[in-house]
Amino acid sequence: xxxxxxxxxxxxxxxxxxxxxxxxxxxxxxxxxxxxxxxxxxxxxxxxxxxxxxxxxxxxxxxxxxxxxxxxxxxxxxxxxxxxxxxxxxxxxxxxxxxxxxxxxxxxxxxxxxxxxxxxxxxxxxxxxxxxxxxxxxxxxxxxxxxxxxxxxxxxxxxxxxxxxxxxxxxxxxxxxxxxxxxxxxxxxxxxxxxxxxxxxxxxxxxxxxxxxxxxxxxxxxxxxxxxxxxxxxxxxxxxxxxxxxxxxxxxxxxxxxxxxxxxxxxxxxxxxxxxxxxxxxxxxxxxxxxxxxxxxxxxxxxxxxxxxxxxxxxxxxxxxxxxxxxxxxxxxxxxxxxxxxxxxxxxxxxx
Length: 352
Description:
The protein is of the alpha/beta class.
C-alpha cells in the first residue's frame, strides 16, 4: 500500500513495487525525455533489467553512471554530470530517475534541483538506507571538503518505488548501514521499536513503518524548522565519525547514537540499543575508537561545520530520554566539548 507525503508545494508517493511495475509507471510519466542517474555498481548487477528501448519506446533516454558511495557526491562529479545532461539538450519538462543508494539519491536530487532551476524527479532506491531514509523527505545534497551535505536543497521526488528484491545482493556493510538508520527510528518511535522486536528484525515489516514515519514527520516540517530536526538523532557525532573512520553512514549514525547515550548517561537506552542490535542481527563489533585516543578535536570540528549549527557558539542537539521520547536541545559547543573531555578516558574502554 503506497504512502503519500505532501506539503504546500509538492507530493511524494512511496510504494513497494516490482521492477516490471516500476518500468511501466516510468513509461507513463508525461515527458519525452528521461534522465537516469544510476549507481555504477547497481548498473553492473541490474542494468539488464532496464531495457530502455523496449520499456520506453517513445521516449529519449540519457544515462549517467555514478561512482558508488560517497564518491558520487563529489563537486567534480556534479559538474561532470550536469555538463553531460546540458550538452545532450535537456529541457524543462525532462524527468530524472535516480537508481541506487542514499548517496546516489542525494546527488541525483541535487542535480534535479539545480538543472534549469529544477526538474521533476523520482527514485528507485536499492538499499535499506535509501528505502527507509535517504530517498524520503526531499533533502538533496553533495559534499564539500568542510563536511557532508553542505551544498544542498529541498526538492521532493514525485515517486519512490521500492523493490525489496534489490536487497538480496547488498553487502554486509550496506545492510549494516541501513540497519543503523532503523535503530535511529526505533529510538524515535515506540511503534517502530515494537515492530522491530515483534517481527524479529524482518525488514519487510520494518521498512514500510520507517518510511511512513519519515513521511509523516517531513510532511509537517518540510524545511526542518522544528520537528524534523528529530531525524538528526545520532548524526551530529555520526557525520564526524563517518569521516574520521571511513564508516558506512548508518553504522556511523549508530555509533553517534551510542555516544550520545553514553555522554548523557542513558544506561537504559544503551541496553535497549544492544537489544535492538541483537534483534537486527548486527554482528559483534567494537567502537572504532576503542583503546585509542578519542578524536575529540575532530568530532568538534565536524560538529562545528554541521548544517544543524544554531549559531557560531551553539548547535541543535538531539538527545533521547526514552524510547519514543526524544528532545531537541540548543547546546553551547563548549558544553559539549567539556562533556567529551570529561569522558575521554572511559570512552577508550566503552563497548556496546
